[in-house]
Amino acid sequence: MKDWFTLLTPENTIYQLILAAALGAFVGLRREIDNNKQKHAVFMGFRTMALMSTLGVISTFFEPMPYLPAVCFGGLLTFLAIAYANGAFKLKLVGMTSEISALVMFWIGVLVGYEEQILAIILTIFIGGLNAFKDELHRFAGTISDKEWLGALQLLIVSGAVLPFLPRDPIDPLGMIVPFNIWFLVIMISGIGFMGYFLTKYIGVRGSVALTAFLGSIVSSTAVTTSMADQSKRAKLTGIFTVGVLVAVATMQIRVAIEIVAWGTPEMAKSLIAIPLSMAVAAAAMAGYFFWKTNQKHKFNEPNISAPTTDVELVSPFELGPALKFGGVFVLVLLALAFGQKYFGDSGVYAAAFFSGAVDVDAIVLSSLESVKLGEMEPILAERAILIAVAVNNLVKILYVAVLGNRRMVGKVGVGILVTTSVGVLTWLVW
């Protein structure tokens, strides 16, 4: 039995051959499934892809010939170029996905031969996903405007060209502004937001109210709240849009928890993580309660609850304008915390947390965590500042609903948010 287990080591030749062939077959199988649905001849299917990755791993077995993988790749490239030319001129087939996938699978086999199995598996999953979700990706591309694409391009260019050269030490007298850290945070938050924006664009905003609220709140829980409140007045409905607001609150807490883990010290993460997670659970529970109550009252299920329009106006966060705006707010909050603590002590920090929490909870959370890492703020003070900011951001949503929404919705949202915030405070007291 032990002899069999020795086959599962990364350097074992038999294991490498089996793994490489399996990875190639996995991608090829996906292509065969698609081709069978469309009922046309298979090109680069199950067997061919398995052979491509197997060829890649075999090319690494000859240690005296380290350039053999490159030579084999050159031959493979020539063969595929001829095949592509034949398909383009004779069969009028202009797509190159099959050829590119085959080339990538060859190098995945090479990675397996060089004992980089984890990277090979990750790349295989990526290639398999691209092949499996072809139609969905084309559909998503159709929802992106030129302005959004150019905005993302601007941010990527600025980030790629500027980030590596930004100072990694404080540049201000207070020792708070570290340009590299600030812009890195901007990119991180923009990336998280773009994930939600991508999913909202892909899935669409006329689906479930709860799903729309969840996806939209990855970008902006405030935008979702104001949208739900406004639509509750126009549609004269309260229950389903109350669910949407509370889902937005729960999603915001999850986002805060991710920020704490990603940017806080291990000690801060350990002491703080329970607060947003407990509030997320509480908000989700309240959303579930109102969902159940709405079902009981109107006797309809989720497809009917999904019927009202749930349009949420979102701006792509992965553009230069929104990114610079967040970066500016982050710097202002960071300086406000520093000045507040220096001239007014703890009360100055609490005041800064209160006012900034009403505007942008991400900025105050990340600023507090950054201040602790720079040694400018005690962890306990940062914890209180974050709790104040999150609580204020929750409570401000009641105000949005009161001003923009259906009056009957105010009480329901108010109860849900007050319960959620109270759970967070109690968690902080006992944690």
Structure description:
The chain is mainly alpha-helical. It has 2 domains: 2-132, no CATH class; 146-430, no CATH class. Helices cover 78% and strands 0% of the residues. It has helices spanning 2-5, 13-38, 46-58, 68-90, 97-113, 117-132, 134-141, 146-162, 179-203, 209-219, 221-235, 239-263, 266-272, 274-298, 302-305, 320-344, 346-359, 361-373, 379-404, 407-430. Helix 2 runs antiparallel to helix 5, helix 10 packs parallel to helix 12 and helix 19 runs antiparallel to helix 20 (407-430). The longest helix is centred in the N-terminal third of the chain and has 26 residues, at 13-38. It is globular. The chain starts with a helix and ends with a helix. 40% of the residues are buried.
The helix-and-strand class reads mainly alpha
Q: What is the helix fraction of residues, given as a range?
A: over 70%
Distance between the termini: 49 Å
**What is the radius of gyration?**
27 Å
The number of strands is 0
One letter per element, helices H and strands E, the order comes to HHHHHHHHHHHHHHHHHHHH
Keywords:
single chain, 431 residues, mainly alpha, 20 helices
Topology:
Elements lengths: L1 H4 L7 H26 L7 H13 L9 H23 L6 H17 L3 H16 L1 H8 L4 H17 L16 H25 L5 H11 L1 H15 L3 H25 L2 H7 L1 H25 L3 H4 L14 H25 L1 H14 L1 H13 L5 H26 L2 H24 L1
Helix pairs in contact: 2-3, 2-5, 2-6, 3-5, 4-5, 5-6, 9-10, 9-16, 10-11, 10-12, 11-12, 11-19, 12-14, 12-18, 12-20, 14-20, 16-17, 16-18, 17-18, 17-19, 18-19, 19-20
